[in-house]
Design a protein that fits this description.
This protein has about 400 residues and is an alpha+beta fold. The chain has eleven helices and ten strands. The protein has three domains: about 120 residues, Acyl-CoA dehydrogenase/oxidase, N-terminal domain (Butyryl-Coa Dehydrogenase, subunit A, domain 1); about 100 residues, Beta Barrel (Butyryl-CoA Dehydrogenase, subunit A, domain 2); about 150 residues, Butyryl-CoA Dehydrogenase, subunit A, domain 3 (Up-down Bundle). The structure holds coenzyme a persulfide.
Length: about 400
């Protein structure tokens, strides 16, 4: 794997150390955890979360005061970790990412009580987290959600449905976004424990690259007022601000997949003989490898630019994150497709690494804001700049 990006000015020496240490850990630990899963997806994910906690990697998902690695979430570290894990195992990346996304709203907007109750256990890999935003009739248009939080004497009563919920069925708690009143300012965020009465798994959803995914049903779940995250009515902003942190990391996971595909394609090209030479000697294969390498580096630049702006400038990165996610996931899809093409039959053989990557990448262009949503976000920002600046 080309590690020259670790010396880019966006990153600090600690990021390089993190990448090298995690890579060594992943090579030593992941094969046994993933292979010994014997196809039991839930058990493998639970083992992965525990292993990532024991390894100290989940500390990067929460702030230092609650068992974390740095004062605020360091997006560059999250990206380095996702990229490295994705290079080795899509499921390990998934297990890591959902601990971060599932607890991110608590880390950034939660009360001391909530932070103390959930974050140390997330960092240790003792509690599994989940983020519950999408609904059957509110996906890209997340503000159209209908789940309801009725006010009670002691807090709220939750009813409705959420779908496409990663870790659905194995999570210990869900950060749920639902309506306390009508309109865009009527969404609030709460933490619902998996043991809550009235919460059920309505459906387990199978997808092409399997990971635990479910549709949840809430049937009058009682929630204490202390379980609310942030201010009532600011739930939609909390959701978007959480996505602002994690969207860049989705790009980083795609980058890890793309790097692996490029590495697999390069190794194959150097050894596969045809027409009296190796595949790597054929100009047509060189052109493909060159395009793939270019896409990988351009994605990395957008990802670490976005992560750097968030960490160092501490501003909103809605536009930068949208660009990073859109570009890196779309390009990773084409890099992996080109790797499949270079490997020929081996590329589509069930069980081969690039065949796995081909299935793993697809959902990343959909979840946490589909490519089309990222285009809306980028265009809006551009038009706003033009409006503010007037004619050139
Ligand atoms: N931090 C703080 N506030 C933010 C924010 C951020 N990062 N991003 C947006 N906001 C605020 C906005 O400023 C706005 O506040 P005001 O109304 O006070 O101005 C509010 O949140 C709503 O933002 P916006 O007007 O952009 O909301 P829209 O309903 O127009 O958003 C899109 C439309 C499509 C961008 C949004 O619905 C979206 O991101 N959808 C995809 C959802 C998604 O990712 N689903 C997958 C779930 S995880 S698998």
């Amino acid at each position: 794997m080309d590690r020259s990006f670790l010396d880019w000015p966006f990153l600090e020496p600690r990021h390089k150390e993190l990448a090298l240490a995690l890579d060594a850990w992943a090579r030593a630990e992941l094969p046994s955890v993933v292979d010994q899963g014997h196809g039991d997806l839930d058990a493998t994910c639970q083992t992965l979360v525990r292993a990532l906690g024991k390894g100290g990697w989940l500390r990067h998902c929460v702030p230092a005061a609650f068992g974390g690695a740095s004062d605020a979430l360091d997006v560059r570290s999250l990206c380095i970790i996702r990229e490295t894990l994705a290079f080795h195992s899509g499921l390990a990346d998934f297990a890591f990412a959902m601990q971060g996304l599932g607890s991110g709203a608590i880390s950034t907007f939660g009360s001391e009580v909530l932070k103390r109750k959930y974050l140390p256990a997330v960092a240790a890999g003792e509690k599994i987290a989940a983020f519950a935003l999408s609904e059957p009739d509110a996906g890209s248009d997340a503000a159209a959600m209908a789940s309801n939080l009725e006010t009670t004497a002691s807090g709220y009563r939750l009813s409705g449905e959420k779908t496409w919920i990663s870790n659905g069925g194995i999570a210990d708690f869900y950060c749920v976004f639902a309506r306390t009143s009508e309109g865009p300012k009527g969404v609030s965020a709460v933490v619902l424990d998996a043991s809550a009465e009235g919460l059920s798994i309505a459906e387990r959803i199978d997808v092409i690259a399997p990971h635990p995914l479910a549709r949840l049903k809430f049937d009058n779940c009682e929630i204490a007022a202390t379980q609310r995250i942030g201010v009532e009515g600011e739930g939609f902003k909390i959701a978007l601000a959480t996505l602002d942190i994690f969207r860049t990391t989705v790009g980083a996971a795609a980058l890890g997949f793309a790097r692996r595909a490029l590495a697999e394609a390069g190794a194959h090209a150097l050894t596969r003989r045809m027409f009296g030479a190796t595949l790597s000697d054929q100009p047509i294969a060189q052109a493909l490898l060159a395009e793939m390498a270019l896409d990988v580096d351009a994605s990395a630049l957008l990802i670490y630019r976005s992560a750097w702006v968030k960490d160092v400038k501490r501003t909103r990165v809605t536009r930068e994150a949208a660009m990073a996610k859109l570009y890196a996931t779309d390009k990773a899809q084409s890099v992996i497709d080109q790797a499949v093409q270079l490997l020929g039959g081996l590329g589509v053989k069930k069980g081969s690494k690039v065949e796995e990557l081909y299935r793993e990448i697809r959902a990343l262009r959909i979840y946490e804001g589909a490519s089309e949503v990222q285009k809306i976000v980028i265009a809006r920002q551009h038009l706003e700049n033009v409006r503010n600046e007037g004619l050139p």
